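Need the bound structure for pyridoxal-5'-phosphate, inputs here:
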Amino acid sequence: MLTPALDAVVQRIENAARQYGRPAPRLLAVSKRQPAAAVASLAAGGQRAFGENYVQEAQEKQAELRDAGLEWHLIGHLQSNKAAVAAQAFDWVQTVDRAKLVPLLAAARPDDRGPLNVLIQVNIDDEASKHGCRPEDADALAAVVAAASPRLALRGLMAIPAPVEDRARRAEAFARMKTLFDTLAVRHASMDTLSMGMSDDFELAIEQGATMIRVGTALFGERPPRG
Ligand SMILES: *Cc1c(COP(=O)(O)O)cnc(C)c1O
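Answer from helper R.:
Posting the output first, comments after.
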């Protein structure tokens, strides 16, 4: 029972994976600014993992969808004063970009929830306006997260490359992420996730080795304005 948009995205993923000889990545449905009913409809179509940018918005939808057995990922910037709530509300936090967050998340993770899955957000294009650690700092940050096991599980890296028109430049940013991921994964056996690629470039990300893509618009349509 697929919704047409979910069906189309799954088809695009399978086509790209086949074309580029890569395993099909996991699909994270980005539901920011979409109502709980839209999440419920994709969930009925078989989609399980959902990404949200704001802690409070996510908590409101989680309250409405409590028994749906969904997996929630935080993909928006995490402020230190929200870390404790995030460690309880989410299954994954994809935006750990500084060491200061690590003890805050670990201390607040409930014992009975199992480890909080963590991705390190890397500012791969060194954009001043963007969050994420510098690529050269990812190694040290990965060690800090790994040391917080078993409260935290270091699962991999996440990036939002600069939205440049030039597809070759975007592909090159994805490729640098893949190289960094492979380098760190040698030292950290728990690393299995490279989260990159959105609605308009996920095929490119799959070509370059993404294992998880984050798709909003292509699944839900245009987002309503913030309000
Ligand atoms: C909004 C968002 C997405 C999804 O973007 P679309 O272009 O709608 O697919 C993916 N990742 C992050 C971090 C986002 O904030």
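Comments: The chain has a mean pLDDT of 95. The CA atoms of residues 125 and 158 lie 13 Å apart.
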